[in-house]
Amino acid sequence: ASLGPPEVNITSCPNCINVTVKLPTSHFRDKGKLLSLIDIYEELDYDITLKSLNGEHKRPRQKTTEEVFSTVIEELYPSRNYCVSVVVTASLNRHSTPSPWKCVTADLEAQQGYHEVAVAGAVGVSLIIAAVLKCVHAAGFIHQKIALPQTLV
């Protein structure tokens, strides 16, 4: 039996992509319960092929003992489109169907800091407003003190 295509999702991160893989389901049952590939093989190999403008690049084979796992492919060019296909094999079963290609654009490094910059900007504006209000308030008091003697006269 061929190991069906795994379910693959990819998201972008700064200069990298995060690949989440869900192993294909098996058709084997034990006492009516559908067994996972981990139940059957305990450990599986997976190969990720990365496709970009530079062509296809097969990454080193890795092992998993989890049904759902993630791996990050780093040191990518930002703003460039990358596609990923994953194939899962077992030591006893090398027949497998690769996943369909999934594509995403790697983020720029700068986008990561955008949230912090926005928050810092908002805090900065708040502090400026507070300072201005404090000055106006102080000025108001000074103004009143100067105004009081005139009304007494």
Description:
GO terms for molecular function: interleukin-22 receptor activity. Residues 2-105 form the Interferon/interleukin receptor domain. It comes from Orthonyx spaldingii (Chowchilla). One of its GO terms (cellular component) is plasma membrane. InterPro entries: FN3_sf, Ig-like_fold, Interferon/interleukin_rcp_dom, Type-II_Cytokine-TF_Rcpt. With 153 residues, this protein is α+β, with helices and mostly antiparallel strands. The chain folds into two domains: 7-106, Immunoglobulins (Immunoglobulin-like, Sandwich), CATH 2.60.40.10; 111-141. Helix content is 32%, strand content 35%. It has two helices and ten strands; from the N terminus they run ββββαββββββα. The chain has helices spanning 37-41, 109-152, and strands at 7-13, 16-22, 29-30, 33-34, 44-52, 55-58, 62-64, 68-73, 81-89, 102-105. Strands 5, 6, 7, 9 and 10 form a five-stranded antiparallel β-sheet that branches. Strands 1-2-8 form a three-stranded antiparallel β-sheet, with no helix packed on it. A two-stranded antiparallel ribbon has the order 3-4. β3 (29-30) and β4 (33-34) form a beta hairpin. The protein starts with 6 loop residues before the first strand and ends with a helix. 12% of the residues are buried. The model has no long low-confidence stretch (mean pLDDT 83).
